[in-house]
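Rotation project, supervised by the postdoc (A.L.). Task for the rotation student: set up a whole-complex structure prediction and record inputs and outputs verbatim in this book. Inputs entered:
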Amino acid sequence: MHPHPRDPRPDAVAALDARHVWHPYTQHWNAPAPVEVVRARGATLHTRDGRTLIDAISSWWVTLHGHAEPAIADAIAEQARTLEQVIFAGFTHAPAAGLCAALARVLPTGLTRVFLSDNGSTAVEVALKIALQWWHNRGEPRRLVVALDHAYHGDTFGAMSVGARSVFSAPFDPLLFDVARLPDPSVDGDATLAAFDALLAARGREVAALIVEPLVLGAGGMRMWDEATLRALADRCRAAGVLLIADEVMTGFGRTGALFACDRAGVAPDLICLSKGITGGFLPLGATAATEALFDGFLSDDRARTLFHGHSYTANPLACAAALASLALTESDACAAARARIERAHRRHLDALATHPLVRAPRVCGTIGALDLVDARGAGSYLNPVGRELAAYALEQGVLLRPLGDACYVLPPFCTTDDELAAVYGVVARFLDGARASGA
Ligand SMILES: *Cc1c(COP(=O)(O)O)cnc(C)c1O
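Outputs recorded:
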């Protein structure tokens, strides 16, 4: 492959990056040099220095079917030659209207109104603003939002406020709005429900909304919780008139096996937040879907009741075209079969690792497999170095893993083969054996 003439000289990328790029979640003081990727196909990344890597984390949970999936690439290319972007206030277009209608068809019952933005954090911000303004518009200003311990909802201020306080948020903690917290349902769902009951009894009429990551608390460590607790939380919300916001930015579009995690529990939330896999991982897009009752709460001849929110790239036609193409693939029988196959592979490999002395809590939810690495240096902490040690080892071995502290997870694109999954888990097993041999 010859570099495009507009590209920097191949050997110059690392130098330009080192001089000019500020990477996300990266301590540039001592971070290893970033790996330059020149192309990708399926579950494989090809690096500048001629190596291949199995992308076992779907490039931060976005790549849904596989890298460079031709059906999605074609849809984007065709759309780019037709209508690449247009203002979305006062204007509309087929990709956006078609996508919102398609989402209304596949989402849990009642989520018929879709607001488009451009990432997961904004999808959450929009849900929070719809919920809070809906109460405001009713003249009943409920302002308390309830969230789960270990929650992650994004990096903007509202999303940080409902997320767990952590090393990520510490510099901003005094500026974040107060949220009521329920204990982590992956530890004890009954304790979560009891805390919610107590909160509703004491302050029920102040509570505007409960926000949850249904069934899997993702960035908090792939903490998996059960359908019955989710259903019970939803029932309590309904009874107390509290809005339920499901943040399915990570769990949406088949990651948990079902199309949406809420489907596994038979729960229909009032608001759902989508992003990440929505375009198959090709382009940034966020979607917040609401019920007709919430939408109606903004209809008025009083302009002050308008949802005054929007983003420049709201409903970008290329992203919408990618999302429609990705959804068609996701709804296919072949995709459902691939998800079931990946779940079986996770169970096989995690069963084999379950008795390893350095493995704790192996767990599976659909296409997501996870385990905790037993390591004395800060259990449950994002800063535990064991995760970075595993990531570095895996990189040498041709696998992209990025544990969350001591929580190691495998969240692959749906095209990932059984052989590729065996290779990924083989790397984890060899790392564990090495760690045991060195007495860590
Ligand atoms: C990643 C994530 C977000 C934030 O999405 P961004 O696109 O990174 O802003 C929000 N909620 C959940 C559950 C996520 O996993």
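Student's summary: The chain has two domains: 35-68+333-439, 71-330.
Supervisor addendum: The pocket of pyridoxal-5'-phosphate is lined by residues 119-121, 124, 152-154, 213, 218-219, 247, 249-250, 275-276 (CB under 6 Å).
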